[in-house]
Amino acid sequence: MKSLFTLRFDLQRVVGGVEDSTRDVLMVFVACSDLDPEAFASIIEAEIDTSLVPDEVAIIVREPSFDTTMKQFNTHSLHSSTLGRLSKSAIILIGYDCNGAESRRKCIAGIMPSHAMTIDDVRRRGITYIFNERRGFVEANATYHFENPSGRHTERFIRLSNILACGAEIAFIGFCCLPHIAPTVTKAYLDTPSLYAVVAAMNEQRRSFEGAGWILADNFSSYVGFDQYEFDSGKAAVVLISASSSGSLATRLVTEKSVEAQQVVHLLYLGRKPITTPVVCDLLKDDETNPAGITTLPLVNEAENCSMCMSGSHAIKLQGDQFEFAGPQQDALLVGLADAPKGLLQLMGRYACDQVFEIGLGSSGLKTPRLFNINVTNLLASKAFEEKLAYAIRQSVPASLSQIIAADEQSLPLAAHVAAQCAKHVSVVARDQIDTIPNDTTDAIFIVASVIESGRTLLDISRDLRSIAPAAPLIYLVGMAKTTGEPKREQLNKSLVQTHNFFPYELVTVDQIVLPASYDDHSWVAELQLLIDPDIQDLIPSELEQVVQLRIDRLRLRSQPMGDDLFLPNAGVPLRLQPGFVFWPSSLPAKVGHQQADVYFTIASVLQRLRANAFELSGKRRIVSNWFQQTILAPGNFGRFNDDVIQASLLRATYPYELNFADTTDESYELGRLLRRVIAACESSRGGAASEFLIALASRRLQLCRKDIEQVLAIKTPDVPMVRFLLETCRRRLL
Length: 735
Ligand SMILES: [Zn+2]
Known about the structure:
Layout: E1 4-11, E2 14-15, E3 18-19, E4 23-30, H1 37-51, E5 56-62, H2 66-75, H3 77-85, E6 90-96, E7 102-109, H4 119-133, E8 137-139, E9 144-147, E10 153-154, E11 156-158, H5 160-163, H6 167-177, E12 187-190, H7 195-206, E13 216-219, H8 222-226, E14 237-244, H9 248-257, E15 264-269, E16 279-282, E17 300-301, H10 307-310, E18 314-319, E19 324-325, E20 329-333, H11 344-351, E21 357-359, E22 372-374, H12 376-381, H13 383-396, E23 403-406, H14 412-421, E24 427-430, E25 445-452, H15 456-468, E26 474-483, H16 486-497, E27 506-514, H17 523-531, H18 534-537, H19 545-556, H20 596-613, E28 629-633, H21 636-640, H22 644-653, H23 665-680, H24 690-698, H25 706-713, H26 721-734
Helix pairs in contact: 1-3, 4-6, 6-7, 17-19, 20-22, 22-24, 23-25, 24-26
């Protein structure tokens, strides 16, 4: 165990207005009752090895051990060899009393310097040293900063427990507290439990002195516990505050709890203005008394005017007396037109009536279509696509084109279409045939992919072609690019066009849409699991048996993507879009041919754009999901978008944590009320999404506070069998 705390520093005094010469001082604080000669020998050896022999060595011991320590220096053989190594130094023994003040001093070796080190020289320096070494600040970085329990924002804060790491150091901190805590004090109120260690260190030292009482300590939990706590304002009690920058807690103790100012002791203080209550260590730099102190105070901003928030950094809430990070903070977001990805409105105008967008029910690793499926056949058949493609071909097909590689099987028709537009014969090469391309070709090569998601296939082909056809100009043609965000797309573009040849390769994308990557645990999987649950199957009324079975069969039909059968209707009428969908051209909803999947894709695209914004330091509106923050969808969205088909799309395109209102009472209440209105109106189009809401609730993709769930489920059951059945389902699952 380490029984000594040492501090090496330069000491310079101003005597009669004149600075005397700087002396190199080693302070050795003896943390236990006796100085161990071996421990002393080894620290002196280490000091001399790294920083030469000091001018002055000051050993601080408890007064009751002063004489025995002095005697041991004269008799112990290990001490005499240690003193031999320190032959050039003045070695001083200092004793301290139970007030932490010097009781006496003697020179062990050398000559006593005229202005030698005193205990007053080392308290502030010593604790500042420990603070710096142990990194007493918890610091922010570019992505996050902190919100104090007071509501203000800061880039760093002091956490006392960081610096309470080593027994000898804690003993030294306890020793430094002694002057402010009279021997008659027997009670200490602590603002944080970390201070128990400091009180234990004080008690251990006071035990060596006669007449000093034992301090009983209790944590009042800082501001959190302030109001409820009863403080004893007598002289036998002190309040110990771990750290402060303003003394505001001390002021409240004095004014609200009638504690004497002298009985409120700050262990650490770092503020612009000095305070009137006692401070053990002022961490601020002072050229003379604390040269290693802190020079810049933590930046503290009012929340509504915080420069860190404005530059895109998250504010993490600190809570409790230990300044723990609070769990994720939930902010509710109302989605609006400005949140749509660029060009979404035009894109939907081009394709919404062409059955291009479909929901696949296959999972990863299977050959079946996945969640965000683009119907390639319908895309190629689309007039709007054909026009854009024709332009791209006119612009990008070079005279020397001789080969077209189809990136995968579903790209063969597009590759054949491009080949057919060329004036001369161009051969279409399948992905697994690219070795047949002549090695020395200098002719241009087209690489065609009808749909890409990550672009991995194109990157693989580009790598292969570097050795197969190094001199050939390459042009990548993509029919529809699905991308999770702009940076991802730019990165793909950069990687593909890069070459040692004269000019960069080219990437031509006919159209693109921002979408999440397809995932497996989507709402239709949750719905299927719900409907086939034996517990729930019991509840199906006979009149619905056939309808439910058809729905189960549909959800199990993975080979067949869904277009207009995404949502479960309350009765026979499918969910439908009304005129005036803000993300679509105004004429579109009235046109024939658009499907539920088109609305779902639109909503999924807007949400994905908002999620992608979270990774850009732009201050844009965003959906954030990380350890510290979670954006939830404001219940107002379901009022703003009151078409049943949009409501259902929102319910199914959000991730469950974006619809988790279990911890947000206001939002939960608001959504609960809305849900009751929707259920009550389930026979009209205003309540068209009632079944969809109930499925989301039953499968826990939508979560409300318990009391709001109870209220929703207490509603008078309407005379619509599906809604009745799903209400029963929710009651069985959630109550
Ligand atoms: Zn801030």
